[in-house]
Amino acid sequence: MNFYVLLSLYFALNTSILCKRQKIIGGTVADIKDFPFLSSLRNLTTNKHFCGGSIITKRHILTAAHCLFEKDYSIIRIYVGSNYSVSIYSEGYDIESVRIHPHFTGYNSPGKGSRHDIAIITLNKEIEFNVHQKNGIIQADDVKVEVNAEILGWGLIIFPSKVYSMVLRKASVKIIKNTKCLEKIHLPIYDEHICSDGNTKFGVCLADSGGPLIIEDKIVGIASFCIPCARGFPDVFTRVYNYLNFIRTAVNANYQLNISVA
Ligand SMILES: *[C@@H]1O[C@H](CO)[C@@H](O)[C@H](O)[C@H]1NC(C)=O
Ligand SMILES: *[C@@H]1O[C@H](CO)[C@@H](O)[C@H](O)[C@H]1NC(C)=O
Ligand SMILES: *[C@@H]1O[C@H](CO)[C@@H](O)[C@H](O)[C@H]1NC(C)=O
């Protein structure tokens, strides 16, 4: 997830004890064919996965703003169509341009959380769609509470560590009310956030920053921040429903989005 925010939270909340025990973050292995819109953002210098994203058209990736904010885009490459978080198994795309939400608050605001954490990447060339790589469907209506959702990615499997999963993993979570989330997390939670319930068995690190929150195969959220890691605190996602206009505007009209009702 967002380690800059995580660090801020860490100090703001003095929750260092929460992170002492190493723990394998659960979930199960997933097949990219079931989530063909999932993409991996990698750092070409280190050749490491660092954020997730969702294919929303042949040329556009939906992700979190903090994955790209103040970064050198020329050393980021997007990989699609693979179960694996290592480059040799999949095709990479370079970034042509990035649209970060104009009101994104940045990630370095201790105790303040993170707002408008959403960005759209335009790729340098079109993704050829097939069963392993195609656009996801964005849910056009708002998310209900107490429903089940899925998180997925190649996120950390041990925390604290730098051990990312080699294979795609998924876990199921429950959407909770923002008021309940606020009670548990003690950080500002706004209408444009969605929270999933904390669980001590899995979560959090698994949902890579920038990766999707999914309900019935539709994208409803973008992993934004959390208190590490599967310690029973809610995970916080950007509520995609609040940004449909931003998404429509950021996407070149030549490329078709699929925004459908639940
Ligand atoms: C991807 O992972 C799934 C689940 O483990 C597996 O069934 C499938 O064969 C894998 N695909 C490739 C191309 O490795
Ligand atoms: C890539 O990794 C290098 C070396 O750790 C780091 O300096 C750089 O900021 C990273 N870039 C991105 C875009 O993550
Ligand atoms: C959106 O996705 C649904 C489900 O796969 C499909 O039936 C529909 O045709 C798609 N619409 C567009 C505009 O691509």
UniProtKB/TrEMBL annotation:
Domain of life: Eukaryota
Pfam families: Trypsin (PF00089)
Leader sequence segment: 1-19
Keywords, in A-Z order: Disulfide bond, Hydrolase, Protease, Serine protease, Signal
Claim: Signal is one of the keywords in the record: yes
GO biological process: proteolysis
Record-linked InterPro entries: Peptidase_S1, Peptidase_S1_PA, Peptidase_S1_PA_chymotrypsin, Peptidase_S1A, Trypsin_dom, TRYPSIN_HIS
MF terms (GO), sorted A to Z: serine-type endopeptidase activity
KW Magnesium (keyword) present: no
PROSITE patterns: TRYPSIN_DOM (PS50240), TRYPSIN_HIS (PS00134)
Family affiliation: Belongs to the peptidase S1 family.
Name of the molecule in the record: Chymotrypsin-2-like
Biological source species: Ceratosolen solmsi marchali
